[in-house]
Amino acid sequence: MTSGRPISAPHAPRCVSGFAAFGISILLVMGAHGGDSVVGVGTFDRPPYQYLDSSGKPSGLDVDIFEAAAVAAGLESEIRVAVPNQTDTGKDEVLLGTSYAVLGSDQIATLPYTKTEHTLFANDRSLVRGMEDLRTKQIAVIATSYGLIDYLQRHGYGGQLTLTLSPAEAFAVIIDDRAEVALLDTVVGKQALDKLPQIGSAVRIV
Fold it and tell me: Is the pLDDT reported for residue 79 higher than 50?
């Protein structure tokens, strides 16, 4: 891997956002259930794809595409923040920006509207130069990065994953040497690093 460049398949993980054509998935759901509204559910921890703005309103590319598709399909739309272990809301739901890398999934998958590349972030003491150095190392990942986690598990890294809730937590984990590197969406990771000036030079891009 070239220093400072994002890693992508076949050399390293690349997961693809799976609800590109939201209109297709919405119409399939509505055709099955006969409803006239749909709920978009997201974690809103991945700017610029999905995040909560300064007023707490769900925003981002995933939200814009979902709402535009709902309008095109003639459906009323609602956005909700995912709550761990929450049961079904009783309404037709679409998972915003889900990953398209899980094999054998029984969920509806549509054509991707974007690909997501991932980059390794390490602390300033780490000697890691690429994925080839990680066979015995702990890797911090975001717990909701389902496609990336699936990829890593299928390629023998499953026992080495440290799950975190945000890029900031992933950076804290590697700074404290609880993991060797953080493997994050390139855009999300770099934006988070820019917004955390207190980290300074403690975290570097591999």
Answer: yes
Phi-psi region of 50 (alpha: psi -120 to 50; beta: other; left: phi over 0): beta
The separation between the first and the last C-alpha atoms of the chain, rounded to the nearest angstrom, is 9
Tokens of 165: 């809730």
CA 20/CA 64 separation, integer angstroms: 11
Q: What is the pTM of this model?
A: 0.64
Q: How many other C-beta atoms lie within 10 A of the C-beta of residue 111?
A: 11
Helix (H, G, I), strand (E, B) or coil at 146: helix
| Cα distances (angstroms) measured from residue 168 to each of 49, 86, 138, 194 | 17, 25, 17, 11
Instruction: Copy the structure tokens of residue 100.
Output: 């398209």
Nearest partner of 118 among 43, 194, 16, judged by Cα: 16
* Run of H or E including 125: none
Evaluate whether 206 touches 134 at the Cβ level (below 8 Å): no
Name the residue with tokens 């023998």: 156
Distance separating alpha carbons of residues 6 and 166, to the nearest angstrom: 19
The mean pLDDT of the chain is 75
The two structure tokens encoding residue 147: 């496609």
132 Cβ partners below 8 Å, 6+ apart?
none
Return the structure tokens found at 180: 């060797």
